Amino acid sequence: MRVLLLGANGYIGRHVADRLMADPAVQLTALGRGDDADVRFDLASGSPGALARFLDAVHPGVVVNCAGATRGGARDLTRHNTVAVATVCESLRRSVCGARLVQLGCASEYGPSQSGSSTAEDAVPRPGGPYGVSKLAATELVLGSDLDAVVLRVFSPAGPGTPAGSPLGRLAEAMRRAMQSGDGELRISGLGVQRDFVDVRDVARAVHAASLSAAQGVVNIGTGRAVRLREAAGVLARVAGFGGVVQELDIASQRTGSVSTPPEQLIGPPAHPYPDGCGTWQQADVRTARDRLGWRSRIGLEESLADIWMEAACRI
Fold first, then answer.
1. Quick one: pLDDT at residue 181?
2. pLDDT tens across 115-133, in order?
3. Terminal CA-to-CA distance of the chain, rounded, Å?
4. Mean pLDDT of 67-93
5. By C-alpha distance, which of 118, 115, 97 is closest to 107?
6. Long-range contacts: 246-249, Cβ < 8 Å, 24+?
């Protein structure tokens, strides 16, 4: 099976590439903007016709799209997350290859949810920010394309390669700085936020399973369990051997400036401590992934955090 992977050099894309290359039945071709891609192509500015001609030449059986942007203004997010997917869909419609499309979506498309609830695929999406809006628009393009396609809505990925600017990455970096300077107290904002953390290697397994399946529509990829960021901080402290105290920075104090805390110890802005537009709670209903992909998460949060810490510790 020939697979064309878009965004192979991104956080999730690298793990997807590793997973696919481990399958001896897969012939992998990577397309992207970087010099290390097999083929250089900018999805946000390239023409659907040019990409369709490439698809006809390579004739993949599956196209996996891990490309996109998580940061930037609404204009950039729209270009890289929405316009790029429109290009992919149009090129697949023009091509004679008949490839299946596996599109990576995100839980930010859902927006805030009620505390204690599990979000299923039939929930009405109400994204709380431009990132979620741009990803939701991409999902709608895929679902309305009449292609053989599935969208994997990934909840909060964690594990090796976690971006330093993400909440878990910033938490690990703040702990590294505290240990390096000998601080016995770490003050962090937003520890009450709860998210469904799923290991990025499990996400890669889900992509592999989706590539081989006949599933269509939207499929949630998560663990089915929300974890409070305070709990994640405690696990990380244990893994790192941090013997100090992790304290939650009072939001009111942060706003008024009555507490002096180094910026690197603040996890996100006060109003949205976990900057994905999803409020204080999000948890996936993962029954569809189990039933239609035969997939469930395997790697626990402690292992994910241990790998995040290993990378942070290398900077000590």
1. 92
2. 999 999 999 999 999 999 9
3. 43
4. 97
5. 118
6. 246/185, 246/186, 246/188, 246/191, 247/185, 247/186, 247/187, 247/188, 248/187, 248/188, 248/189, 248/190, 248/191, 248/192, 249/187, 249/188, 249/189
> What's at 63, amino acid-wise?
V
- What band does 250 get if pLDDT is binned at 50, 70 and 90? low
Bridge pairing between strands 217-221 and 156-158:
unpaired
